[in-house]
Amino acid sequence: MDSAAAETIGTTLEKLRVVTCFYLGSFTLLAYDYFLTLPDEVEVVWGFHWTVSTPLFLLNRYIPFIDVSLAVYSGTGLNISGATCHALYSAVGWMVLCGLGISETILLLRTWAIWGKDKMIGYSLGILLAMSCVAMSIVLGKYLKSVKAASIDQISPILRGCLITDFDRLQYICFAIALGYESVILFLTLIKGVQELKTSKSHLVVSLYRYGILAYLLIFVSSVANVVVLLLESPAYANLLIVTQRVFHVVLINRILLSILRNALAVSLLEPRHEAVELQIIR
Which alpha helices (H) appear in the chain, and where do they start and end? Predict the structure, then answer.
């Protein structure tokens, strides 16, 4: 092996270690936030009347532990064959896509609710989400077919994780589609949020909208960052922010729902009846 090839392999392996560190950091954040918010979950989810949002919340909260763990294993596992690496990438890819669909559905329901459950808003967002999911599924299928993986121990038996030798950069299209959908959600949320912040006299309702808008903005920024990395960085960094964005979506959306449920419970006990009804509609 000449020096140029050895240097290229060394650089690629260094970048793969960075990606693995992002995987580990994402899992740590997911677990840390879970234990931080577990008391709230027990109080306002398991001890509260279930709504249509509850199963979505539980799926959004617990499924990520599976796909993020698989991603961590793909970066840290020892003696993983090329076939196993491809299977891991496929499993993580489809689970992330399904998780993204669940997260976007929750955002759809919240947006529809704050717009007073307007039928036009609901149908429009539902159709847009369905079209987005179909398009992302097609793109993901083509991307996974292009992925070629090899066992990293062919380079050295002490190395861990998977080595992706070739792929098409199609996955950026999936996240660009999600970014477009989230742009619509953010736009609608900002419009309604500004209206409510101007007219509502309830401190709890105002705090709820402010927190929700901030969370939506952070979700939007994480999506933008992921698309930029996918388009501009080297192939070794292709998966750098995918799992991180997945965890950001999960953490922020779960916190939005827990905040809504916690405020709805507080308002039902402390606030006037009309404000309790207002928060119940949002819930």
Answer: 3-41, 53-62, 64-76, 82-114, 119-146, 171-199, 203-232, 242-270, 273-282
Please list, residue by residue across 177-186, b when 16 or more beta carbons sit within 10 angstroms of its beta carbon and e when fewer do.
Answer: bbbebbebbb
pTM for the structure as a whole: 0.86
> Model confidence over 187-217: pLDDT tens digits?
998 888 888 777 776 666 666 677 777 888 8
Domain of 141, in residue numbers:
3-282
Counting Cβ atoms within 10 Å, is residue 259 exposed (0-12), middle (13-18) or buried (19+)? Answer: middle
Q: How far apart are CA 88 and CA 71, in angstroms?
A: 7
What tens digit of pLDDT does each residue of 133-175 get? 999 999 999 999 988 887 777 777 777 888 877 788 888 899 8
- DSSP state, residue 45: I
Mind giving me the DSSP string for 88-144? HHHHHHHHHHHHHHHHHHHHHHHHHHHTTT-HHHHHHHHHHHHHHHHHHHHHHHHHH
- Number of domains observed in the structure of the chain: 1
